[in-house]
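Justification of resources, computational component.

The compute hours requested in this renewal are based largely on the per-chain cost of generating structure records like the one below. Each record pairs the submitted sequence with a full structure-token output. That output is archived, and it is also reused by downstream analysis tasks.
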Amino acid sequence: MDTLKIRRIGGFAGFGLPGSKLQSSGEQAISELSAADRAAVEALFRDPSARRESGRERDTFRYRITRTVEGQDQTVEVPESAVPSALKACVSDRLT
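The structure output for this chain reads:
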């Protein structure tokens, strides 16, 4: 589990979803995260309640975070409000 792969999806224009011309993604080395951010990421994978939004608001961003543990990819999709700012900062946009 060395690197997190992060994709930002949704929003008003459906960024990153099938058919979208804009992809928002990035990678973050886990070793470069603070202890608090590592704990927050671990909580996202461990606690399903952290993945829910109250009211499931429209036109908001969600983040798909993938990590590899013992050769198996694990992915969670979480609301933007649950994502540590260090992960948000590594995401950049590109046209496809």
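The radius of gyration is 13 Å. The chain is about 20% helix and 40% strand.
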